[in-house]
Amino acid sequence: MEKRNNKNSFSPETIKRLSLYLRNLRRLKEQDIDIISSRKLTTFLNVTPDQFRKDLSFFGGFGKRGVGYNVEKLTKEIENILGVDKERSIAIVGIGKLGSALLGFEGFSKFNIKIASAFDVNKDKVGKEKKGVKIDHIKYMRDIVKKNNIKIAIVSTPPEVAQEVAEGLVSSGIKGILNFAPIVLKVPPTVSVSNVDMACELESLIFLAKRRQKNSGVKR
Amino acid sequence: MEKRNNKNSFSPETIKRLSLYLRNLRRLKEQDIDIISSRKLTTFLNVTPDQFRKDLSFFGGFGKRGVGYNVEKLTKEIENILGVDKERSIAIVGIGKLGSALLGFEGFSKFNIKIASAFDVNKDKVGKEKKGVKIDHIKYMRDIVKKNNIKIAIVSTPPEVAQEVAEGLVSSGIKGILNFAPIVLKVPPTVSVSNVDMACELESLIFLAKRRQKNSGVKR
Fold first, then answer.
1. Which CATH number fits domain A88-200: 3.40.50.720, 3.40.50.300, 3.30.1330.40, 3.40.630.30?
2. Could you say which of A3, A166, B156, B197 would form a disulfide bridge with B94 (CB–CB 3.0 to 4.6 Å)?
3. Closest residue of A to B80, CA-based?
4. Is the Cβ pair A190, B212 closer than 8 Å?
């Protein structure tokens, strides 16, 4: 609509940086800072002012060079761009150790995210409440997700069932999956998947560290 | 050294998939499965058998087509490739809510990772033990990290101090950083950074979901 440039030329990195800016604008607001220069905000985040302005330019121009940004206004604008300006209900499937920890994660509310539905198959869990969220049997997942118009889900099931769960979610209208199961989820191109896998990240770092030590050992 | 092909042509994705294979091989072992066909292992993970063989081929050939893989042997070989065949000590800096949760995360030991050192600046925390790990003042970080030859660190500090902490870690010989602080860390090219940011992933998913709904709304 309005004054958007190159609507399709921003990368996923742009969106991640917007999320970073947002997080830090919220922190500034908590510290009662009303106005911030792009230089100050970006230096602190290790992003160049040019990158910052470019990221914002995809969604229209905000603020003026040299004048600084109104923290509250820019916060609202970025919230609006990302679609996190109002509370967003998400679902979680798989209430094991990790799923339980996520149910209890206080950080979500800070980001206007509310876990509204939780699913599992374990009869000791189904029907009970955990951290204020009722756990339903997974056989009701499609109905509940559809009825509540939930678009984002967390998958924290064992890997063996994760693909089946993802397919159920997709057929219920889910458009984004945050995947904690250690498999590569196959979804249609209209659905996005983000993988969170700390062990995987750590093992990659260990591999790279080992490799670099080896290479530096043969350096002349 | 040995029979490695195209030593430099594998991507970070190869390493992440090796970590995935490893995780699932360990699960198979727990289930007392001794031999697995590449087809079975890969179907389950949604990776093609060709991809699987290609990923392994960078590090020498393992197993034979049609014969299947010895689960224990392949586990050890991948552990060896990744450098997680023996326990690896890592450090963590910033023992707030997230840092404390990470200190208590049981999953690390499963991956041969041990948090050996923890650092903070808060005088209520320094000198105490948490989950069996002593918290030292950050001013001793360089000495302790160097002395213990730690190469991997987790940064879970507030964003304002994360860059400074990262620089301290790099000068102590750290080669890989798992960064939970919401900033872009600047490190030399000889150091790797992986960012874990659930809020950022979720906000990206929300943005993409919103955008897709909008686009599908104007579809003719």
1. 3.40.50.720
2. B156
3. A207
4. yes
